[in-house]
Amino acid sequence: MAQVLEFRLPDLGEGLTEAEIVRWLVQVGDVVAIDQPVVEVETAKAMVEVPCPYGGVVTARFGEQGTELPVGAPLLTVAVGTPATPATAVTAPPPAPEPEGSEPEGSGNVLVGYGTTAPPARRRRVRPGEPAKGAATHGGAGADAGAVTAGGPGPGSGSGSVDGSAVPVQGSVAVAAAPVLGSASVAAAPVHGSPAVAAPPVGSGGPVAVISPLVRRLARENGLDLRGLAGSGPDGLILRADVERALVGTAPPAPGTPTSAAPPATATRGTGTAVPTGTPGSGTAVPVPTAPAVASAAPGETRVPLKGVRGAVADKLARSRREIPDATCWVDADATELLRARTAMNAAGGPKISLLAVLARICTAALARFPELNSTVDTQAREVVLLPQVHLGFAAQTERGLVVPVVRDAHTRDAESLSAEFARLTEAGRAGRLTPGELTGGTFTLNNYGVFGVDGSTPIVNHPEAAMLGVGRIVPKPWVHEGELAVRQVVQLSLTFDHRVCDGGTAGGFLRYVADCVEQPAVLLRTL
Q1: What's 466-480 look like in SS3?
Q2: Where does the record place Gly residues bias (predicted)?
Q3: Which one of 35, 49, 91, 331 is least enclosed by Cβ atoms within 10 Å?
């Protein structure tokens, strides 16, 4: 007997609350495997392929290309298990009721990232005027739309709709409808209020409960055993932040401490989100009406929504301006010797060393001397937190907009390793393949705006970091060298910093050290 499960847009981590459907990777009627990517979505940070935790036949999809869905909104439904034959579906007697005290047994189907499902509890028919046991009393909000049971024939059962098309599922399958705008849904209420998906405790034989398949993949790629982690989410649920803390070796927060995981959003009127509605078993996607626009464009005007990458950049820059009292200092430097040193390194053979990698190596050496600039401010505790690792972000312009990929542990890398990582992240950014983990967690940013042909800038600090080094174009200019006027390759360096973490003396010392290394690269030998 088959059962239909609903897969909702999972929390993709890093505080993301919505995503836009870019491309469906499956069609209605396709057979999908556990952890198979089913849809490609674009978040405010990256393009992500979302894997489905269920294996079976796709019966319905919710949302078209370009639709923006909140976290927790339905993505698709999947019929799992072995469907009954038509003859069996007609002649088989109804299942005997279970004793009220019996415990649900695990189905054995491992759902990657979500634990192991227990078979849905059988529900008795509710007579008119009789309340259902375990049913939600507040507008049916307690119904779990992620659990769907196999039942008898009903209107529209065993079909799913996508773009108006329907594909039958063999056997009689009833899809539990999600409550809309507070309407009661008695049939979808689990017996005794038990959830449809039971997350096994850590250390059990089943999989460890994590908040999304992406978290499990992050742990797998880094060789981290999830069974050794104590999740900080509800009921020990392992969040992305728990895995990242384990990878960097920091302690998890105390129980009850708020985490970065965003709560699932609930679709309401005015969002334009498609939610499964209608009669149980229909699986029909009905869009919620969209509220009219607040303002209309005047003749000749064009209104561009602030969403996706552009919206994320706008929010972050506005927050930085509100919270960070920044200041900027700058200096001109003779980069002639730096360019000669890079030419000599590349002439020695081996992989080419980029100029950005040499500047990054100078930055990490300067941060070792001035650690106040590799920090963040804890506003609640009123403390400056000095960070032990240097995760170096670098600004990159792509077709999707400005992104800041992060080079992890830049302080442990040499120029050759930095060049390779810069090249890899830049290519991934242009192709739209950067993951949220590669776009977050920076502690200091290097901004090479000289590629735009400009000399100077006063950049905005990348919140919650404390400083950003800006590098202008390198151009020949008149310069006094060894007491004589000469044409030298000159660059302007600027440092924007959070004035809460240090005073001008520290910022000036950092910038002067960087300029000295640019003018005389041999200065770096003292710290190598």
Answers
A1: CEEEEECCCEEEEEE
A2: 137-161
A3: 91
pLDDT in the model for residue 403: 85
**What sign for the dihedral angle of Cα 260, 261, 266, 272?**
positive
**Residue-wise pLDDT tens digits, 237-286:** 788 888 888 887 755 555 444 444 444 444 443 444 444 444 444 444 44
Residue 336 has pLDDT above 80, yes or no: yes
C-alpha closest to that of 448 among 401, 509, 510, 402: 402
Helix 336-347 to helix 355-369 angle (10° resolution) is 120
- CB of 274 within 8 A of CB of 266? no
Residue 12: pLDDT over 90: no
- By three-state DSSP, how is residue 284 classified? coil
Which residues, at least 6 apart from 58, have a Cβ–Cβ distance to it below 8 Å?
A: 26, 27, 28, 29, 30, 31, 32, 38, 76, 77, 78, 160, 167
CA proximity to 403, closest of 442, 355, 364: 442
Picking from 112, 109, 110, the residue whose alpha carbon sits closest to that of residue 35 is 112
Q: Where are the alpha helices (DSSP H) in 200-273?
A: 213-221, 240-248
Q: How far apart are CA 55 and CA 108, in angstroms?
A: 12
Instruction: Specify which residues 80 forms β-bridges with.
Output: 3
Instruction: Report phi then psi at 214, rounded to 5.
Output: -65, -30
Contacts from 317-323 at CB under 8 Å and sequence distance 24+?
317/460, 319/463, 320/460, 320/461, 320/462, 320/463, 321/460, 323/379, 323/463
3-state secondary structure 115-163: EEECCCCCCCCCCCCCCCCCCCCCCCCCCCCCCCCCCCCCCCCCEEEEC
* Token pair for 365: 């050496």
pLDDT of residue 263: 44
User: Does 489 score more than 50 pLDDT?
Assistant: yes
Residue 106 and residue 117: Cα distance in Å, rounded? 6
Helix (H, G, I), strand (E, B) or coil at 432: coil
CB count, 10 Å around CB of 454? Answer: 12
pLDDT at residue 82 in the model: 56
Nearest to 215 by CA among 197, 195, 232: 232
Question: Which residues make Cβ contacts (< 8 Å) with residue 368, sequence separation at least 6?
Answer: 411, 527
Residues 316-335: tens digit of each pLDDT: 889 999 999 999 999 999 99
The structure tokens listed for 453 are 């042909």
Residue-wise pLDDT tens digits, 289-319: 444 455 677 888 998 888 777 777 788 889 9
Mean of all residue pLDDT scores within the chain: 74
DSSP single-letter state for residue 71: T
The CB-based long-range contact list for 395-398 (8 Å cut-off, 24+ gap) reads 395/445, 395/446, 395/447, 395/448, 395/449, 396/425, 396/426, 396/429, 397/451, 398/429, 398/430, 398/432
pTM summary value: 0.53
Contacts of 100 (CB under 8 A, 6+ apart): none
- Mean pLDDT, residues 209-213: 68
Please give the torsion angle defined by the CA atoms of residues 346, 348, 350 and 356, in that order, rounded to the nearest 10 degrees. -30
